[in-house]
Amino acid sequence: xxxLPPDDAALVSAVESANLPTLMLVMAxxxxxxxxxxxxxxxxxxxxxxPDGRFPEEDARQVRRQALDxxxxxxxxxxxxxxxxxxxxxxxxxxxxxxxxxxxxxxxxMLQDMGLPDREVTAIPAAPAGFRALVIGAGVSGLLxxxxxxxxxxxxxxxxxxxxxxxxxxxxxxxxxxVDLPSHFYAYSFEPNHDWKEHFARxxxxxxxxxxxxxxxxxxxxxxxxxxxxxxxxxxxxxxxEVTCRARDGRERKVFANVVISAVGQLNRPSIPSLPGMDDxxxxxxxxxxWRHDVDLRRKRVGVIGTGASAMQIVPQLAGATExxxxxxxxxxxxxxxxxxxxxxxxxxxxxxRHVPFYAAWFRFRQFYLNxxxxxxxxxxxxxxxxxxxxxxxxxxxxxxxxxxxxxREIGERTDLLPKVLPDYPPFGKRMLIDNRWFRTLxxxxxxxxxxxxxxxxxxxxxxxxxxxxxxxxxxxxTGFHANRFLWPMTITGVSARTGxxxxxxxxxxxxxxxxxxxxxxxxxxxxxxxxxxNLAHGGSIPFHGECQMRYILGxxxxxxxxxxxxxxxxxxxxxxxxxxxxxxxxxMVWTQPNVKNWFLSAAGRVCTHSPFRLxxxxxxxxxxxxxxxxxx
Length: 633
What we know:
By secondary structure, this protein is of the alpha/beta class. Helix content is 31%, strand content 14%. The protein folds into three domains: 136 residues, no CATH class; 288 residues, FAD/NAD(P)-binding domain, CATH 3.50.50.60; 158 residues, FAD/NAD(P)-binding domain (3-Layer(bba) Sandwich).
């Protein structure tokens, strides 16, 4: 049973602000009237630029009138929630909503993510007495690990280097910091948030959400804050890990854990380029992830080095407040417009999410697909495509034309700027960014885009390779992270019959790789969340991928407990075969093309950060571990 509030005015207001494709799914679901998804009124193909389905106005009015009638009837009928439609009907509804065919394989994955039917906690056999897990990191993935371990009844400790939980959302406080995919998708599937203030939430709101979740599930009681893991060494005799931790005051302590789960992420160690003369600069210089709030940049000459995701959010925030803003660019970025980027979530939308059965689930489904695998096909190389340097295939070229036209409209009459901001590589060769009024900001008289390379930093600014000098009062490094130095600077030491006691550094040799990005041979009872080849560039969210990985890890522990064993280790052949598939898939994708330069590569030149697979593929791979993939001892 579900009761809708009796306030008819609130219902009318909510329907007026509804996402219409979502509303039509809800109507069909609640009423069972499939003519609603088989009639003449249909959404057009959805996208990030067109999340509303693009209905003609008369069709939109008719949909809203029907919705009011159905929701009133549902309320007056006692709020009896109907059973879930058949798999075939659900597939039909999903495809209808998006204006395109959704492959049938997505149905079970989407039902699980949407919580339809009601979500079940992953059940595994009880852990042996005294069994303990240690989680490294209390960001999005670390909190998830702690929650799932707690639900499974496994004692655990969370080690966090910062003074508060939240990971990247605690550390990054720069102006304009916000998530770059829709908020309602950037949340744990089991803990939706119906009260986001904006469709793309600001960093402080995401941090508040993570804090609420941590409090709800009692994670803080298991967390050691201001403590950093220095090393972890596997003890074969005890079948577990001796972990050395260091508190902020420098004191060290050793703890033992049967299993270690690293959740340190990929984007948590700032990378600052080694420019000549860095120590000579007289003013403040800092990385975007360690923002100096004590430094007043108003009416100052400020240089921002970098034009990636962080810079695209920072620069429009600083422009107008600074005396002059110099943006130092190594290469231009593709950026896409998103009409909801700054749009607040209306009270009517929140009303629907809170009160109308299935609305939140169907709304999340559409966001998931539109911001997930929908573009994966366009990232594949067509060997017969005649323009490989500008695009990969016909679909990718259409994206390029659309983005180029958008940039040209934004630049307008400033044709001198166009060669500087128009990329010469295929779309998605680097992380696709969302335009945060970036191009319009570059048109300002007090903003200058500098494309000449920096030769050195001086006491008063920077000198370029051309010989020109720019006087600066402050420098902001929006230069990313050591993304391919996984688990650095920790020392993780496993056990090997061949080499004795290898460290992960020894094994990887600047080329990190893992089975499913989760587990590595010679490192028993050691797992990673957000490990090698699990970052997402074609779409998706880290919470979703983390849930896939944590479900798999619990499955591995379940194997351990059910068979009365104490150690589980990935087979070398399984690990190698998987990574050969990863490399083969990447070889056919945009990120490995000759004229593409990005931060996805290891020192060995291999894509080590990003996943080449569709979300549905990875979800299927991680549904449950295969016992034959592991050595249980």
